[in-house]
Design brief:
Order of helices and strands: EHEHHEHEHEHEEH
Bound molecules: flavin mononucleotide
Low-confidence stretches: none
Number of strands: 7
Distance between the termini: 8 Å
Largest sheet: 5 strands, parallel
Strand content: 15-25%
């Protein structure tokens, strides 16, 4: 089984990438590939640029990574209550090639932030929207107050309650 994971953020030290990476470690016997959105930097999408340059190669590459997955593990950064601009840009470019960007793949959808709501606004937006773009969302998880609840040195959730919650979710996926 192959897991493709990413934090939907442009930050080099993305806390969502860290959470997504930890979540992948809870699956046994999985091949894991962690994507970095910085490897998919494209001009800000507009139909005018699209007419000029056509389908972007990096969008094709991102879609190919999704196609290679049996399970997607995605953690959404929340910027002003919504997707990060970096994720939205990748999403927009990809959606012009394949409307069902997530290609009917199973998905564990998460979010974290440094605040108490743990990115719940963007998690709700993505939970509602992604199925229309081919995501088969199996479970969602939000980790509040990342810096209080995640041990960055060990790369694990340090709060036992939240850790158990995520472990139960992963077990429940039956993968
Ligand atoms: C422009 C901007 C807007 C933000 N808006 C929110 C927000 O609406 N809700 C929230 O919980 N955190 C917000 N934050 C804080 C982010 O959750 C925090 O920066 C977090 O590290 C983002 O995840 P990342 O490290 O994966 O990029 C915002 C941060 C930035 C830079």
């Amino acid at each position: 089984m192959k897991i493709v994971a990413f934090g939907a953020s442009p930050s080099k030290n993305s806390i969502n990438k860290k959470l997504a990476t930890y979540a992948t470690s809870l699956f046994e016997n999985a091949e894991v590939e962690i994507l970095d959105l910085n490897d998919y930097q494209m001009p800000l999408f507009s139909v005018d640029i699209e007419i000029e340059i056509g389908q972007h190669e990096l969008a094709k590459a991102f879609l190919a990574k999704i196609a290679s997955a049996d399970l997607l593990v995605v953690s959404m950064a929340e910027n002003n209550g919504n997707y990060s601009a970096a994720f939205k840009n990748v999403f927009d470019w990809c959606s012009r090639i394949i409307g069902k960007v997530f290609q009917e793949k199973s998905m564990l959808l998460m979010a974290t932030s440094d605040g108490k709501r743990g990115g719940k606004n963007v998690l709700e937006i993505a939970t509602n929207a992604f199925p229309r773009y081919g995501a088969d969302i199996k479970a969602t998880f939000s980790l509040p107050s990342f810096y209080e609840n995640f041990d960055q040195e060990k790369g694990v959730i340090s709060n036992p309650e939240f850790d158990n919650q995520l472990k139960e979710i992963v077990k429940g996926l039956g993968i």
